[in-house]
Amino acid sequence: MDTLAPGLTRAAVWSADGVTVREMPLPQPDRGQTLVRVDLATVCGSDLHTVLGNRPAACPSVLGHEAVGHIVATGADAPLAVGTRVVWSVTAACGQCPRCLVGFTAKCARVRKVGHESFDGDWPLSGGYARHILLPAGVTLVEVPDRVPDAVAAPAACATATVMAALEAAGPLTGRRVLVLGAGMLGLTASAACAERGAIVSVADPDPVRRSLATAFGGTPDSPDIGGLVDVALDFSGATAALTGALSRLDLGGTLVLAGSVSPGPTVAVNPEAIVRGWLTLTGVHNYEPRHLREAVEFLSGTVTRYPWESVVAAPVALDAAHEVLTPTPPGVLRASIAP
């Protein structure tokens, strides 16, 4: 294990030249801030999109917004005590702008985001691909029970919490036919969460390996030749063809929730008459609210032995090898991971 001089930490900094691990001074938290020692970070697909140039992002930066760790220092008025094991939200909200005041803290007018800030700015340690992360006031921290392994807890901060927001947008699910589009980490999490709420779940994905994972997460593999009407469709793929197909399968009063379209893509054609006559609802979610992160931790804690969460997270690499996992993952692996 590598050693560091007192007062230093290490971070994997992504730039135009690739990923370089740098040593830097360990910050001391100010009022409302929390310093966390990162135990494990998982690699969200959106970071892969960033590295591959598919979406704009601050550069250089410390990426990583799915992680779990222990609080090692706090400033005055910090929400939790030193030693607490936590996950934290992607967004830091001001709490005072019109959006925050009406409950849209995820879209705060002055929002700052974990793993999305410039390394050359005033929040260099903003991402989870580092030994430590400094969390400002406005970030939600949630305590994680010891029974939830690191590999299960880390995705709560993005994948699981986003699913909780999507399910809230979908409405009651008991007895309803739900089609999940995309059998990545979010899709399989949604499959399990919908099953837990009493839904009849099918999961669609063009990759047969990923599609077959649905059976372990409360769903049934779906394919175009199976088809059939559904009451709810949840999209985590962002694929135009998948969205078009889902729209055609919505039964009367059906709802389509979009959560996967987070980078530019082709326009989806929508027939207004079909929306009107079918009493259909189309909505989207991006980021999530603090309650969704709390629900995510509660959900994972309650299902930790019911679904094979750890099986879809690869064994962690060291921080020095972070560049090796910021690439598309092999079939069957939904999340790479880094142990800083």
Written description of the protein model:
The structure is a single chain. The chain has helices spanning 45-51, 98-101, 150-153, 159-170, 185-196, 208-212, 240-249, 272-278, 290-303, 322-325; strands spanning 8-15, 18-25, 34-42, 66-74, 85-92, 112-113, 132-135, 139-143, 177-181, 200-204, 220-222, 230-235, 250-258, 281-284, 317-318, 337-339. With 340 residues, the chain is of the alpha/beta class. It folds into two domains: 8-157 and 308-339, Quinone Oxidoreductase, Chain A, domain 1 (Alpha-Beta Complex); 163-284, NAD(P)-binding Rossmann-like Domain (Rossmann fold), CATH 3.40.50. α8 (272-278) links the parallel β13 (250-258) and β14 (281-284). InterPro entries: ADH-like_N, ADH_phosphonate_catab-assoc, ADH_Zn_CS, GroES-like_sf, NAD(P)-bd_dom_sf. Keywords: Metal-binding, NAD, Oxidoreductase, Zinc. Its EC number is 1.1.1.1. Its cofactor is Zn(2+).
